[in-house]
Amino acid sequence: MNENLFTRFAAPQRNKTFLKVPDGGAISYAASFAAAARFAQVLARAGVKKGDRVAVQVEKSPEALFLYLACLRAGAVYLPLNPAYTPAELSYFIADAEPALFVAAPQNEVLIKTIFAGPVLTLADDGSGGSLIALAANEAPDFEDVAVQKHDLAAILYTSGTTGRSKGAMLSHGNLWSNASVLKELWRFGENDVLLHALPVFHIHGLFVATNVALAAGAAMIFLPKFDPDAVLAAMPDATVMMGVPTYYVRLLKDARLSRDVTAGMRLFISGSAPLLSETHREWRERTGHAILERYGMTETGMNTSNPYDAERLPGSVGFALPGTELRIADENGAPLPQGEIGMIEVRGPNVFQGYWRMPDKTRAEFRPDGFFITGDLGLIDSNGYVHISGRGKDLIISGGLNVYPKEVESLIDAMDGVAESAVVGLPHADFGEAVTAFVVSKDGARLDEKQVLEKLAGHLARFKQPKRVLLVDQFPRNSMGKVQKNLLRDRYSDLYAAAKTDAG
After folding, report:
1. What beta strand segments (E) does 9-133 contain?
2. What pLDDT, in 10s, does the model give residues 422-468?
3. 251, 490, 494 from 500: Cα distances, Å
4. Phi/psi class of residue 239: alpha, beta or left (left: φ > 0; alpha: ψ in -120 to 50)?
């Protein structure tokens, strides 16, 4: 049986609207699928075969989405890369994934060719031009989808590692379809829905959760190039559902135009990628009359849990395990813990990824013998069955919905002249959820300052990974084994950004 994800999306073909774009235009499903067919023909003529990786570093546009669909049709493995990644970061991904083709913005073509020896195609930021568009214009609007099985790879998404080395999470056609089909039913998506899409499409939230669910349901999307409060509020009366990160909701709450009237036509607001503060949940409900639905997922698994559609959406909770997904709270050996006790969240189900690209030892280490994946997140299940996230066992920072692992930042800081040691943590921030914050101990006699450290990091890290602040300290708090106690740093400086906001105001 052909398990191609695109084939499932495309059956039957629909002549209704798929994308509504900012200039007021609309693109039908039929036109979108035809564009994907033309792009798939271009990929095939460039020598891309089933299982080959196609690296893509472009801005969000309808054409970027069609390229994702083209990769599914061609049986290629889609490798989305954040446009903010630096050449040093891209060099690692290229060496590790060994893509057969790279699609870049035209202004980056020369740079990419200095670090990638294979064919490079271009796609303009607004999707209107580039060599990919020019080549596709000569292709037929149909393509025989490559047959794949459910375990064949559809995408590789890189997620930072605690050792500083990024890991490629391998997601199959079956992984993506299982999540999309379950969420479509759970969140009551239908072909009359209009999803307000302001998320990036290099990330699992905007690419797989939002887009795949809309495709599975035959819904339309208001496809905004980025989150902008003016554009979001203007589009809301024409939408029925919005997916966002907590930062979006915090910023909208600061806008006096947000009201029950503006949100009257909406049936659902969904939040994920970072913890939603209970305060934000309550304030949103007071202002709009809507209770935000919070869910929990990760790159390796897609979504694992969701608050219910009909029953209480509990502030501070991520709800229940999705149908077909098993979730348990376990001790360090994988043994289930009693209800109410904090432990490691472990999951098993058709949504769980195939492992880390070319990291068999790491893959084995992250799975229990009975098939449960160790998420690295700590949590508990309360007496009513709701899952609560208590913390992150791997020190992951989620800033603005994007993952940052401290070790990657610390390694760069520690290599700087005059630095004895560094510690990077996430501190509460009203806009970003957590702000990347670096603490640095200088070597004796060294003269370091915050600006100097930040300038040195700028060329090596994407902006979302760069610290918002660098604080110079004399020493770090340590336990009896000499390990830095990051929890004490978080507690001691928990009001750092609140204080900065107060001072500024």
Report:
1. 17-20, 26-28, 53-57, 77-80, 101-104, 120-122
2. 999 999 998 999 999 999 999 889 999 999 999 999 989 999 999 99
3. 18, 16, 12
4. beta
Taken in order 350, 352, 358, 363, the sign of the CA dihedral is negative
H/E segment holding residue 297:
strand 293-298
For residue 286, how many other CB atoms are within 10 A of its CB? 10
Distance, CA of 40 to CA of 398 (rounded, Å): 34
**Bridge pairing between strands 101-104 and 120-122:** parallel
Q: How far apart are CA 353 and CA 363, in angstroms?
A: 10
Q: Write the pLDDT tens digit of every residue in 198-229.
A: 999 999 999 999 999 999 999 999 999 999 99
**CA distances, 135 to each of 132, 183, 439 (Å):** 5, 36, 50
Please tell me whether residue 20 adopts helix, strand or coil conformation: strand
**pTM for this one?**
0.86
Residue 271 corresponds to which tokens in the numbers above? 């939040």
Which positions ≥6 away from 96 have C-beta within 8 Å?
Answer: 166, 168, 357, 358
Helix count (H) and strand count (E) of the chain? 17, 24
